[in-house]
Specification:
The chain is globular, with a radius of gyration of 18 Å. By secondary structure, it is α+β, with helices and mostly antiparallel strands. It has six helices and seven strands; from the N terminus they run ββαβαβαβαααββ. The protein has a four-stranded antiparallel β-sheet, with helices on both faces. It has a three-stranded antiparallel β-sheet with strand order 5-6-7. The chain has two domains: 111 residues, no CATH class; 63 residues, no CATH class.
Length: 205
């Protein structure tokens, strides 16, 4: 049986105020099981009846190995986010809702482009054309979500252009690419994805 490692982030409603507190942990299970389901099973086993509120899952993604959790924990500790008085080493307090959302965006962005090297900071590896180049683009192809996932450079450009405008965009894009009804119209120039897409499914943002 092939096993996947899942990184999850959860909290409780009363913890998600101006300085949200979240738990970041990992679990594992059959690769055929949805990461969200594996995360919920793990959280349920942890919480049981020890907390009066229902836990709220903020994110669950498949990662390439256990090292991702340690890498993230170390970086957040270096930033002063670790809650030392909390039991265990997995609870963190973010200074603002925006910084928590930025962290979730970086995590889902890493999943989308299959590159976890940038979890600790801003991206510096994105190169290529901007959205302005659509003016001279040609050769539009229709791609489903699975085919679109292979357009790594194009995905990086889209992420660069839209993530700062729409908080949560990496999560939305990951969800959209995994939806069987999604169709992306991709404009090409010089034989490769240039800079523009349109998503035809009726997914909510």
């Amino acid at each position: 049986m092939e096993i996947q490692t899942v990184l999850y982030i959860y909290s409780f409603p009363s913890y998600l105020g101006e300085q949200p507190r979240v738990k970041i942990g990992k679990t594992s299970g059959n690769v055929d099981v949805d990461p969200t389901e594996l995360a919920l099973q793990r959280i349920k086993a942890q919480v049981k009846t020890s907390h009066p509120e229902e836990p709220q899952l903020l994110g669950a993604v498949t990662v390439p190995g256990d090292w991702i959790e340690g890498h993230i924990h170390a970086q957040l500790k270096d930033q002063g986010y670790h809650i030392s008085e909390a039991p265990g080493a997995e609870w963190f307090r973010f200074p603002s809702q925006k910084l928590l959302q930025d962290f979730l965006d970086r995590l889902y962005r890493a999943v989308i482009v299959d590159d976890f090297s940038e979890l600790g900071g801003g991206r510096s590896d994105i190169q290529g054309d901007s959205f302005d180049s659509i003016i001279s683009a040609f050769g539009v192809r229709k791609l489903d979500g699975n085919a679109f996932k292979s357009q790594v450079e194009l995905i990086k450009i889209i992420d660069q252009e839209l993530s700062f405008l729409y908080p949560g965009f990496p999560q939305w894009l990951d969800r959209t690419m995994n939806n069987s009804s999604s169709i992306f119209n991709v404009a090409y120039r010089d034989g490769r994805g240039a800079s523009h897409f349109r998503q035809n499914s009726q997914l909510s943002s």
